[in-house]
Amino acid sequence: MSRPNEGEERDGPVIRDNRRIDPKTGEVRSPAAGAAGAGAAGKAGAAGAESAAEETPAMDEEAVALKTQLAERTADLQRLQAEYANYRKRVERDKGTIREHAVGGVLNELLPILDDIGRARDHDELTGGFKSVGEALEATVGKLGLEKYGEKGEPFDPTVHEALMHSYSPDVSETSVVDVLQPGYRIGERVLRPARVAVAEPGPDADESGDGQGDENE
Q1: Which of 129, 185, 179, 123 is nearest to 156 (CA)?
Q2: What pLDDT is stored for residue 147 in this prediction?
Q3: What b/e sequence results for 46-76 when a residue is b if at least 16 CB atoms lie within 10 Å of its CB, and e otherwise?
Q4: Residue 157 lies in a domain
């Protein structure tokens, strides 16, 4: 039995049978037989090293693939979260719109009653129990978001005012509301009823303009 060559790589002790006579058959061995055994062992070691070298790139590729999949799944999750957040916003907005329309429909039916309360107040007839009921109703519709608008002297706005009367006046510098014939009501930005008003534009004295159309007839 001989020692392995120096520098030879092996995983464990290698035993070689270098006897020239085969103990099993009694025949003289060929010198190539021992060399073949040594060569086979060397090849086995080299094959193991090559296999280990091939496994390393494969593991790296698998890690890269897993990282890519993780990034894709994370992006999908973030996209779903954003879509859900937008969905909730749309639902809340739609709920608010539906509620506003429903409340507006009810309040619109109460506007004639509110007009009667306002006229009674203007004529000092809002007294006694009628006064308490009227003020309670006005407070209730106010809590629901109903807003009364329309005041003398404010600029005329065709989006919220309905002009029923028109005249000229030297006392105004722009088209303005000079009388409120019927107040307007709105909920938020939604107008339930425009304010019906009389408006005046800057112009000559009433004596010179006549009925407000004098300039046009000259």
Answers
A1: 179
A2: 93
A3: eeeeeeeeeeeeeeeeeeeeeeeeeeeeeee
A4: yes
Which residue has tokens 């506003």?
100
pTM: predicted TM-score of the whole model, two decimal places:
0.53
Q: Which residues pair with 161 in a beta bridge?
A: 195
Q: How do residues 150-170 score in pLDDT, each as one tens digit? A: 999 999 999 999 999 999 998
CA distance 40 to 68: 43
* Structural contact between residues 111 and 149, judged by C-beta atoms closer than 8 angstroms: no
Q: What is the CATH number of the domain that holds 166?
A: 2.30.22.10
Whole-angstrom distance, CA of residue 143 vs CA of residue 58: 71
- Has residue 109 been placed in a domain? no
Distance CA 198, CA 167 (A): 8
Q: What is the pLDDT of residues 75-114, one digit of tens each?
A: 989 998 899 889 888 888 888 788 888 888 889 999 999 9
